[in-house]
């Protein structure tokens, strides 16, 4: 399978090529715009969901252009349906590529998940079985994305609530093979690892020990919520509506100590707090990067820019 | 993209089974799924069901806040869930969701008494379309002021990309404003049965919504359809002999609803500035 061509920074970019090395960032929410602009440099980078910026114009693009002029951006797609069986939506892929060209993001990522089938968009990151057939589809789709954007992308590990009886690959092996076949990098969501490990009764530490850390170009942290199934067994929901939990911070420290200071993003998408609360979470992550990272992590091959 | 045909049989059944079960609250979790240590997928599968339905109904509430306020949050939840199941999104662009919501409301029996509700939804849909529309400079007032009266009469106007007009038999525009945080006009009690048109646009970064009387609505509808100023004025005067043409021309400029004008003398060439 073809590797994505090596990308190089644009010769005449519209925006400065800020670095995300060793920095922590946060999800961008429009209600935080003025607070962020009032304190330039405080936050290492901002991450936006690509789909929110696929309109033609208006306030979303005006805000994003102002933010990008002062700091690096991470463009995080949530609707590409890379894990789906159907071919990618060509129009959606073109819109995604347009955003990459327009905003020159330092990081570009998408999910190992699906959301569209039979032309119905379900607006959630739905799980897929890990089989030879789904592996081939996922690699085809990542090839298509990387060809469209002209650079490698990062693929995020999912949080899941159910498992497929038909799966024949372990998730870590599946991801490792995707990286090998496509040349993409990985976005390691440590909260997702903790949520899935709790939900499926495996060791998060063992999962991380088996994770292809050398290919990680970004880390995600987020809060989760608790629930219980019909047997009274507790499980976790990847809710992004709370501070990062202590066990997730502990796993994160271990990963950073092992992998180095990988750019790290704190996600908060629901019950969003005032900016200082989110900023403090990012500052806590950046302190760990400085303390445990030892060195700025080597970028995975081609997976990040700037 | 070269794709082999879907592998048939059970191996390819999971997306469709998932999609069907996620949108049907009475359906069991799809076969072939399990929770922890072989436990049933039941409550854990419900997380996906809740995520899908909750995120989509939340998106509808954000797009249609006046509709939600008019029917109440609990009722809105019920009708939004019914809408999501009948009309799941066909595009990953959620800000474009709900094109069919107004027509759905018109046929949805529990809210039939709120006769203006579908037009309220049409205006709110137009509001978000305007929010995301392409940027463009509005027509400068000087462009009109510089024209001789006869050339002005023959002028046609190119709409700003954000401009939408919703004509209603009800005071739907005033109802939207009153239910999206705009204080009611002084001493003004909204008469829901009075017809209005809603002029929605976004000359810079703020969406504006202006209620128009029916004659002015006819005037703007004619202009947006590409008719000349003179023809639009004639249409409006047929609607109401007391139509205020000068006021309507002022709004034509001040609203920023148009991006360019073309006089007959210009032929097909457009001019945006005099």
Structure in a nutshell:
Chain A has helices at residues 33-37, 59-70, 90-103, 132-149, 171-182, 190-200, 204-209, 246-259, 275-292; strands spanning 24-27, 45-49, 73-76, 107-111, 114-117, 120-126, 154-156, 163-164, 185-189, 216-222, 225-228, 234-237, 264-267. By secondary structure, chain A is of the alpha/beta class.
Please describe what this structure looks like:
Chain A has 306 residues and is an alpha/beta fold. Chain A contains nine helices and 13 strands. An eight-stranded parallel barrel of chain A has the order 1-2-3-4-7-9-10-13, surrounded by four helices. Chain A has a two-stranded antiparallel ribbon with strand order 5-6. Chain A has a two-stranded antiparallel ribbon with strand order 11-12. In chain A, helix 3 (90-103) packs across helix 4 and helix 4 (132-149) packs across helix 5. Chain A is globular and about 50 Å long. Chain A starts with 23 loop residues before the first strand and ends in a 14-residue tail after the last helix. Chain B folds into two domains: 13-114, no CATH class; 119-274. Helix content of chain B is 46%, strand content 10%. Chain B has twelve helices and six strands. The model of chain B is unreliable at 1-10 and 268-274 (pLDDT under 50). The chains are: A alpha/beta (306), B mainly alpha (274). At the A-B interface, helix 2, strand 5, strand 6, helix 4 and strand 8 of A face helix 1, strand 1, helix 2 and helix 6 of B. Strand 8 (163-164) of chain A pairs antiparallel with strand 1 of chain B.
